[in-house]
Amino acid sequence: MSADVTMVIGNGGMGRAIARRLGAGVKLLIADYNADALEPVAEKMRDDGFEVETAVVDVTSRESVAALAKRASELGRVTRVAHTAGVSPEQAPIPAILAVDVLGVAYVLEEFASVIAEGGAGVVIASNAGHMYPGVISSEDARQLGQLPGDELAASPLVSPDRFDDRAVAYQFAKRAAQLRVQAAAGAWGERGARINSISPGVISTPMGRAELVGANEGLVRGLIASTAVGRLGSTEEIASAVDFLLGGGSSFITGTDLVVDGGAVAAIMTGAFNPLAP
């Protein structure tokens, strides 16, 4: 009997929490760009009783993502995919933000659509920043961002770094594109009898999230957190819980949508409790 395989892409704080939440009783494949950081995490999980395989992947390369999907399918039935790899404005320049957070999502959705098992499900970690993009995305641009094949999208002026002067705005755009990409992918995944959704976290207590608290947008980020209904950072376990729900049977009628898990940050902006443009 073929083993059930859970694929977790990204070995950061959220990826690690998700791997532990999903990994019991299945074959777990964890992939990341950083091989040196990957193996110690996998070894600790093996010590704790998890069955873990590892792979190095560059999500900005279709060939690399295709090889990862092939590896996952060779291990068994790929029933769950969690794509958590991403970079923030404090971590990377604009070209890398667009490559990882837009094209990386496109390649993962396309390549894993061909190996996901019937009844399977996937989740892409986007960001509530995607709901805060200050620009206007026309219906045609939204269609192209969501539906252009990844290789065509890579050549599109829509994802040219020259369009952006500010890393934070590029990040907001990239995460909005990721949300659109997931929405558009629901049909292709549905043809396999599978579901695909995204989760948009707020500021989470990870190295990436904590970097935002002391970065160039420190005042904005801290003000936003203070204005939310919950009034705190989120935990990686809370994101893992949301991922577990969207990948499980209790969400069998949910696909092609985005679940905001941000303690009420987007709600604070939408209702005027917080104005990100205020001085």
UniProtKB/TrEMBL annotation:
Keyword Oxidoreductase: yes
Keyword terms of this UniProt record: Oxidoreductase
Keyword check for Transcription: no
SUPFAM superfamilies, per database record: NAD(P)-binding Rossmann-fold domains
Listed InterPro entries: NAD(P)-bd_dom_sf, SDR_fam
An example molecular function term from Gene Ontology annotations: oxidoreductase activity, acting on NAD(P)H, oxygen as acceptor
Cross-referenced Gene3D superfamilies: NAD(P)-binding Rossmann-like Domain
NCBIfam families in the cross-refs: PRK06940.1
Similarity comment: Belongs to the short-chain dehydrogenases/reductases (SDR) family.
Protein name (Swiss-Prot/TrEMBL): SDR family oxidoreductase
Taxonomic lineage from the root: Bacteria, Bacillati, Actinomycetota, Actinomycetes, Micrococcales
